[in-house]
Specification:
Layout (H helix, E strand, L loop, with lengths): L1 E5 L10 H16 L4 E6 L30 E3 L7 E5 L8 H12 L4 E4 L12 E4 L4 H4 L14 H14 L8 H15 L2 E4 L2 H11 L5 H7 E3 L15 H10 L6 E5 L8 H14 L6 E5 L6 H10 L6 E5 L6 H7 L2 E4 L8 H8 L4 E4 L4 H5 L3 E4 L4 H13 L1 H15 L4 H13 L2
Parallel strand pairs: 1-2, 1-5, 2-4, 5-6, 6-7, 7-8, 9-10, 9-12, 10-11, 12-13, 13-14
Antiparallel strand pairs: 3-4
Organism: Candidatus Falkowbacteria bacterium CG1_02_37_44
GO molecular function: glycosyltransferase activity
InterPro entries: Glyco_trans_1
């Protein structure tokens, strides 16, 4: 069987949740499947560990030579020599999936197409599988950007907008929100199977996109397969010298509370910063800082504003995006992990924190209670005082900290990218 996979997200340099899912699912499929052939479709040449699906040496993330074959094919090291990449060049920075990947599907269909993140090309094999991670853009629309899709110039954007309105009978505009909405509905309608990453996300998909007419078919089409994490990388670390070296590299000092994820509106960082301010006011001797790890995204200006507003310039450390090989060391030195998100389809950083024996205080919203079980102090993400109290508890209550760490060790054993890949492969080959 020839299996095609959209690897464009897995190949991004600054990865977050869905990109890491794509990256790891590809790596694990390469490890476990010696029977099928794979093509990875990408808009740009694969780099780093995407070129080597054998190695687990994350210190060499960017150290691999880019090797080409003829006609846009790219060589990849894989355990069973059954993976190749095809670079599908596209002159624009938008609509690669619907334009170039669709063209490839028209000319050279694989037996099965697997899309690890939401967007199914309009032209696709009848045997297509799509992973839809969440539908937060519908449930909490105000927290998502509505940027126009199209060329950098206004005229080009206007033309694209007119064309989209024309072809969707004025139902959609050419912006990121409407594109997410349309592409999700299209995938649910046209894909033969849908994977989602939590029972919460399945319930949300059915509530938002289900109807009396299609609900039964949709329920049977959607399979829940939990996310996982890199258990070779994320674990308790005793190497204090290496921990200090990594912390110095990212200018992290003192005891600290840790947040990991994109720095955007959906993650509720404004309330986290205000809650941290209240925590410091109520506990004057507390020497902890707040470390925010992640790339700036929609609403980042608000994060900077809140830091200035509460005069926390010397108390909040923003590292920016951090390479994967450094992350376990940053987790290991954290006093606690704080995850205040308004909405998550899963929340991979929760697994990473549990795997590193870090006690967690987290939002009680969306999929988070399902993922953490008893391994976190849960709080209302809309209540700043509740967030602050939870942070204090998880720092100061030593018995609670021990319980959370113990629960976390048990809970995290439920999740594995290896298991995720086996279950995904089962869905692919049974299609």
């Amino acid at each position: 069987m020839l299996i095609g996979i959209d690897a464009s997200r897995a190949n991004r340099k600054f990865k977050s949740g869905t990109e890491w899912y794509s990256f790891y699912i590809i790596r694990w499929l390469a490890k476990i499947d010696d029977k099928n052939q794979y093509i990875l479709y990408t808009d740009k040449p694969l780099t780093g560990l995407m070129l080597d699906l054998i190695s687990d040496e994350f210190n060499n993330e960017c150290g691999y030579e880019v090797k080409y074959e003829n006609n846009g094919w790219q060589k990849i090291l894989s355990p069973y020599n059954n993976f190749r990449a095809k670079i599908l060049k596209w002159p624009y920075n938008f609509l690669w999936t619907q334009g170039r990947l669709s063209l490839e599907m028209l000319l050279n269909k694989p037996d099965v197409l697997f899309i690890p993140s939401h967007t199914l090309p309009v032209i696709h094999p009848k045997n297509s599988i799509v992973t839809i991670h969440d539908v937060g853009f519908k449930r909490v629309a105000r927290l998502y950007d509505h940027n126009k899709i199209g060329p950098d110039n206004k005229g080009g954007k206007k033309i694209i907008n007119i064309l989209v309105k024309l072809f969707t009978f004025k139902k959609n505009k050419a912006d990121t929100f409407d594109y997410l909405d349309w592409s999700t509905a299209y995938a649910l309608l046209k894909a033969k199977k849908i994977i989602t990453v939590s029972n919460f996300s399945k319930k949300e998909i059915l509530e938002i996109y289900g109807s009396k007419k299609n609900i039964s078919k949709l329920q049977n089409k959607i399979k829940v397969i939990y996310n996982g994490y890199n258990y070779n990388l994320y674990k308790k670390i005793s190497d204090k010298i290496q921990i200090e070296k990594v912390l110095k590299e990212y200018d992290i000092t003192g005891p600290y509370l840790l947040y990991v994820g994109r720095l955007d509106k959906k993650k509720n960082l404004s309330k986290l910063i205000e809650a941290f301010y209240l925590l410091k006011q109520a506990n004057k001797k507390l020497g902890h800082k707040l470390v925010l790890v992640g790339a700036a995204s929609f609403g980042y200006d608000e994060v900077n504003y809140m830091i200035r507003e509460f005069r926390l310039d010397n108390e909040v450390i923003i590292t920016g995006w951090v390479k994967e090989s450094a992350m376990p060391y940053i987790y290991n030195q954290a006093t606690a992990f704080i995850f205040p998100s308004y909405y998550e389809g899963f929340g991979i950083p929760l697994l990473q924190a549990m795997a590193c024996d870090v006690p967690i205080a987290a939002s009680n919203a969306a999929s988070i209670p399902e993922v953490v079980g008893e391994a976190a102090v849960l709080f209302n993400p809309y209540n700043v005082e509740a967030i602050s109290r939870a942070m204090a508890e998880v720092i100061l209550n030593q018995n609670l900290r021990k319980k959370l760490i113990s629960f976390g060790r048990k809970q995290v054993k439920k999740y594995s990218m290896e298991k995720c890949a086996y279950e995904t492969l089962k869905e692919i080959i049974s299609i």
